[in-house]
Design a protein that fits this description.
The protein is of the alpha+beta class and 105 residues long. It is 48% helix and 17% strand. Strands 1-2 form a two-stranded antiparallel ribbon.
């Protein structure tokens, strides 16, 4: 089963002051085996999955403070950026693997 593993950096204690927050790495698995990245609908479905993974990986564990929200947003942006980069690699690979049509009749 093909999957995409996205690493998200989240604060160990999102509610702690930034200077004291320890960074930990969380991994989120995004399933992609069911997607055809050579088709627009496959790419659209893929685009939703990093957003869902970001919400899961970057969820707040403590009080909803401005600092915690800021760290959560940065975490989500990191996960989504990694997902977008992976999407671009997979789309390029799908296009490279597709046979080129030179002429049709």
């Amino acid at each position: 089963m093909r999957t995409l593993l996205v690493a998200a950096f989240a604060a160990a204690a999102l509610f702690a002051p930034a200077a004291n927050a320890e960074q930990v790495q969380q991994s989120v698995t995004i399933r992609v085996a069911d997607l055809d990245m050579s088709r627009a609908d496959g790419v659209r479905l893929f685009d939703r999955r990093p957003w869902q993974a970001a919400r899961e990986a970057c969820a707040l564990d403590g009080p909803l403070t401005l600092a915690a929200q800021s760290r959560r947003l940065a975490c989500e942006q990191d996960v989504i950026a990694q997902g977008n980069a992976e999407r671009d690699r997979r789309v390029a690979a799908a296009r490279a693997a597709a046979p080129a049509v030179v002429a049709t009749r």
